[in-house]
Amino acid sequence: MNLTLKIWRQKNAKAKGGFVTYKMENVSPAMSFLEMLDALNEKLAKENRDPVAFDHDCREGICGSCGMYINGHPHGPVPAITTCHLPMRYFSDGDTIRVEPWRAKAFPVVKDLIVDRSAFDKIQCEGGFISLDTGSAPDAGSIPVRKRDADTSFDAAICIGCGACVAACKNASAMLFVSARISQYALLPQGRTEARERAGAMVAGMDEAGFGSCSNTGACEAECPKEIKLTNIARLNREYYKAY
Amino acid sequence: MNKILFSSVSMKFVMALAGIFLLLFLPVHLAINLMLLKNDPEPFNSAAAFMSSFPVIKVIEVVLFAALLIHLFYGIYLQIKNLLARPVRYAVNTRTKVSFFSKFMIWTGLSILIFLVLHFFNFYFIKLGLVPGNPEDFYSHAHALFKIPAYNYIYLGCFILLGLHLFHAFSSAFQTLGLNHRIWTPVVKVLARIWAIGIPAGFALISLTLWVSR
């Protein structure tokens, strides 16, 4: 495949960025999107040009590092996968692909396609945990958990914190991410003890970071690579009201 | 305390409560307006007089205005905050498939506000004595207004916009209040469609009937 890439290039957080056009020839449809960018970077390096900076780590769709806005979709046009899993066969020969970083006040651009997502870490530190004494692990099954609750909690816990929900939301809201964290703990007996403090603190952290509010449009759910459900946001709301 | 009262979740909660109150008022208003279709002005004028004199209704009227103002100001405030949350827009417009009506809530809401201002001038301010007119005979006044084509165009246009607003607002309010249930949420979504189509259709029916029968 021959492709035209229009990639957002920005030297640093303060520099003014812009799109730069690159022609890619003989792109294999079997490549992932990141592998295609690797090939581009190899080409740029050979030409002594600055490679495109982008975040990546596991390349297995589980770490949440990669993430870019491809042709109007976070993680590209294929639902329920991360950028590292996006195969090039979903594009056609001759396509023009526009690649931008996540856009949100709380996710400032560091360089090119890399954004600073530490706002998520700060929200997590506000209450996305359970306080337990260290020691040996308790016996599995010593605290009974209803099967449906365990499954729903697990479905929320698979959120990888990539930020696609923020990128997709017209308000740059982090409600889906925060709601997944709150649901993960609120549904389990171990997490209930601190449920009230957690909801209040994490919502305060989210507002402080400069994320927008939820308009219930469902864009976050539609673009989430882990298919985190909007029902978690309703649960976040319930937990927050219970907290006060 | 301010952090709790003015958190994004709390503000949406208050907005949703105010919105539900406004949603519940609409069928009451429609039921009274349907009396305009009768040839006898008495039922409509009596209902209008009752609504402006019964003490309980007077209290509800205050709550209704408060709900309207809160819904309006919180809506605008959150919209501004939401715009500030993304200072640099995307070069490529989003292609994410979402509910069509949910994207334009602020615009449909503000259009309804323009209509409400017109509506207040035509009816409510007459009742308060701020605008000349006979508050004893709103029936004739309404009939006269519906004979003006431009008024009907505005009226019908605004009720289409109200329908679009309600389409998303109804179920969205339940989600904001944390009321999501695997059995009841689909029921709420059906109710939302009935509300969003039925209420504006009822008001439009009155406008069209009176306009055509001139």
Description of the structure:
The complex is a heterodimer of chains A (244) and B (214). Chain A folds into two domains: 3-105, Ubiquitin-like (UB roll), CATH 3.10.20.30; 117-133 and 141-243, Alpha-helical ferredoxin (Fumarate Reductase Iron-sulfur Protein, Chain B, domain 2), CATH 1.10.1060. Chain A has nine helices and seven strands; from the N terminus they run ββαβββββαααααααα. Chain A has helices spanning 33-46, 118-127, 147-157, 164-168, 175-186, 189-192, 195-209, 219-223, 231-243, and strands at residues 3-9, 18-24, 69-70, 73-74, 96-100, 109-111, 114-115. In chain A, helix 2 (118-127) runs antiparallel to helix 7, helix 3 runs antiparallel to helix 5 and helix 5 (175-186) packs across helix 9 (231-243). The radius of gyration of chain A is 20 Å and the shape is elongated. Chain B is 75% helix and 0% strand. With 214 residues, chain B is mostly helical. Chain B is built from eight helices and no strands. Chain B has one domain (2-88, 96-212): Up-down Bundle (3 helical TM bundles of succinate and fumarate reductases), CATH 1.20.1300. The chains are: A alpha+beta (244), B mainly alpha (214).
